[in-house]
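Schema walk-through. Below, the input block comes first and the output block second. Nothing else is stored per chain. Lengths vary across the set, and this one has 63 residues.
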Amino acid sequence: MKIEKYTRYERARIIGARALQISMGAPVLLEDDSGEPIDIALRELELGIIPITVKRTQKVKTT
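--- output ---
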């Protein structure tokens, strides 16, 4: 599995989006699912099992 480096903004967005999903009833992908949704989302991201991808656009330089 390729580990991507996320910017701090991407990390915040991913954790926030996953925490919202968990709080709305989405299944938790950890065996120990106790705790706050933010903490669960952070652990999922650290373990690389979070089901969210980031699509980045390529910047085009014009001369």
